[in-house]
């Protein structure tokens, strides 16, 4: 074990690294890519138990993998549940006037309200929203704190709409069209700046943290989409994260990172059914392509936006085959392939429950990496949740201020 000072963050970070690294062979392979998961021969009873689970149990464990899980006979479920439990952050108890939320989606507005309740603003802070979209958060904060808020966004139409909404609501928001990845973004940050970001994606929020550290700015960040990054292999942002990953042999690629954001707010029944159908058809096509190519290997097929799935399995197969440069015979009995697709879909949903156990631990690990970066730069930093996971599963919050 590496030597380190035993702070709570450090203990959590170190143990999570060890568990994620140790169980990589079980959670990294995505079961839809294999006829049988690579870990099956070593965990035959686990695979058998999963295959027997009822649909209701599968749905329950997909939504809440660490709660009353039968997988605890094989995997460290209780310890993982313990490691992802975060103390609630201090919050003020106020509501924003509902009229302020005009032009903002209902769920987004509740997230903004929760963000505002947890934000710790000091009198000297100059607020700056990072990747602001239409500046909904900036507007709420400008009105809440009766102060001017600057907002950076690179899309001109969003800036224009942000200006229009701010003028309409008489909110002191200064929308600035700015690419936050461009070198000149540094002109917006100083030691007086308090950068706020709600659901800024991968590289965008890592850049925010690195530039905030360089300028000494305070940060309040709800990170999102860790897999939206240029790097194919994840390089931990903190020195400690790099050392722990090296010591324990944790190696994450971009696909692994997307597991951290796989949890979504439970979709309505119809949407879930449509998603299951898309998965079953993909797996049915997978069987077909293995036969057509005479090669027993998974072939990735591009994803289709929701609502673009063709009406019939045959049309889906023709579309997927054309994308992969495969020729489908004119007359072909696809019924057996569709049936196998549905069977594999049910099986994959069960085997994936192993991966789901590591979803939140991975997300917390990524957030601890960011928190540790700030601590290493002499910041006092905290992590916790700012709203219920039902409002958004991306409910983690980092607050950091130069000590
Ligand atoms: C996920 S949205 C978040 C918007 C807002 N914070 C919210 O919660 O609704 C990300 C925003 O970042 C903007 N964005 C993406 N890349 C950017 C860049 N390089 N510079 C500035 N803004 C960027 C997008 O245009 C989009 O409005």
UniProtKB/TrEMBL annotation:
UniProt key word Manganese: no
Taxonomy, superkingdom: Bacteria
Keyword DNA-binding: no
Alphabetically ordered keywords of this record: Methyltransferase, Transferase
UniProt-listed GO biological process terms: methylation
Domain Methyltransferase: 111-230
Signal peptide: none
InterPro entries named among the record's database cross-references: Methyltranfer_dom, SAM-dependent_MTases_sf
Pfam families in the cross-refs: Methyltransf_32
GO MF annotations, alphabetized: methyltransferase activity
Annotated protein name in UniProt: SAM-dependent methyltransferase
